Amino acid sequence: MMPDRPAVPAEQEALDRPWRVWASIAVGGFVLVSLGLGFVLLPASKEAGFDPLAAICRAAGIPGFREPPPAAAPPTAAPASQVAWTGATRALIGGGDIERGATIAAEVCAACHGEDGIAVDPSYPNLAHQSAATIFKQLQDFKAGSRQGGQAEVMAPFAQELDERQMADVAAYYASRAPRRGVPATTAVRPDIVQLATIGDTGRGLPACDSCHGANYSGPEGAAVLLGQSVPYLEQQLRLFATGERDNDLFGRMRTIASRLTPEEMHGLAIYYGGLPGR
Question: What is the CATH number of domain 87-175?
């Protein structure tokens, strides 16, 4: 039988052998590099502290290049609030005792918030006729450390003295106090400020402030009634929410809203809800 091709002379075979060896090395190297890129470099390239050379050497089996230690897990963020609005929580707040709350308020709260809930300093909030759920939530957050910024360092030690029953009693007492008479200061601010408060700004994703903070307690549980608060206090809280220094708002509602307001709008809204004397 005739061969398919003529035999290669021995001299030619000797000359071709090095080229075949180098070609095999090149192909093998290409395969190794491809494997390294596909299974090591690209998946790891987004990791912090990634070292491409070390990854290649580990993939090739070169000693001296250890796998880096696993990155530490990011710290778990603290919850925005410790309050869970369960049936038991609602029953606790609803069963607050006004008389016991009056005694606690006189001993612990009146020095700053006034015996009848009108603060002695504009940097403190007025508590008179505030929602009992709001007062209870903020006391809980101060005690747990969930509320930061502003007067949190002042409030935390006082809140830590109270148990849940005492908080509910204090909340019931101040919620029962007569509010400071007043009406929104519509004539003291620009029309766009009134619109923000009553209608909102859909173009910027801003709901009406009144939709949560109106006097009819229509917002989520724990949402504060704003009318009658002092202008400095309201403006300060908006700025704290905007910067994230205060972050005990559930689902980040207030942080999102406040971050979209200009300083002038914050000031105008504070004046609007600070109110004017009512008849």
Answer: 1.10.760.10
